Amino acid sequence: MSTVSRAADRIESVPFLTRDDASLLLVLPGLFVFSAFMLFPVLYLLGISFTNAEPANLFAGEGIVAVLTFGDALFVGLENYADVLTDGQFWNSFGVTWLFVATSVTLKIGASLAIALIVTSDLVRGKRVLRSLIIFPMGLPPIFTITVWRGIFSSAEFGLMNQLLTAFGVSSVAWLSGRWTAFVAYNVTEAWLAYPFMVIITVSALQDVPEELHEAAVVDGAGFLARFAHITLPSIKRPVLFASILTSAASFQQFLIPFVFNQGGPARANELIVVYGYREALSFQQYGRGAAISIIALVFIGAFMWLNVKKGKLADGVND
């Protein structure tokens, strides 16, 4: 008998408790942790979004109770949401964020698929060493990696990227001073941060593709591209789609890259939506407005993930 079953039997032996009640009691600790660290912050953020909260009134009272009840902040209804949705900077951030998601995820899928095909090829030796090197970036703190990439894309002549351009006879570029050059730098750095995860998922999916299918296709005269399009891609589609949805959510919430590189510049042109919410809340001291931005972002990313899971049929068989 398992430990969980024995625990359930002991709880069930308590008067007035059925087995269903015992099962509920077993999940209560996990439910409490989830509520404390996930549900409560979201509900508190939602509450602040309906107030004119700022440092002067949110922390006006004394003690934790005053903060939990929003201090002297006043209820303003949907005013923060109306202000945000009529702000041109919000729509700029919203559009740039989704463009960043689309371009970075495309880059991540392409790069990880190419790397995964290489490390699973029979022509490659030392696959275990290669796989270890590929996942090495996952062990580095993101802030460290992003800072290194900021140096690589430095606008100065000694920046690594500019040195490479100079070696090929191309003049140096002020990478972080131009809108689209900075956007390119964001994408490359985001791809570097996420590709180990994508490669792990893709390699696992490739290893599950039956070798018999490839052998039969070779006998029929199918080349590499034909086998890739008609055997490999359909076989790995769902795992790669699942990984893409997760990394899309990560790209949507990206804060460190634009903030460390140039704080969403130049002139807030590349300000992703999380950076926009941060600036409104902490730089401009508008907590209520910043909370409204976060709630709007949460709704959109939640809808995006739900739609992709449903359309991709990734939840098929869960109820079984």
UniProtKB/TrEMBL annotation:
Gene3D superfamilies xrefs: MetI-like
Tagged with keyword RNA-binding: no
One GO CC annotation: plasma membrane
BP terms from Gene Ontology: transmembrane transport
Topology with respect to the bilayer: Multi-pass membrane protein
Record-linked InterPro entries: ABC_transporter_permease, MetI-like, MetI-like_sf
Coiled coil: none
TM stretches of this protein: 24-46, 58-78, 98-120, 132-152, 158-176, 183-207, 287-307
Protein name: Sugar ABC transporter permease
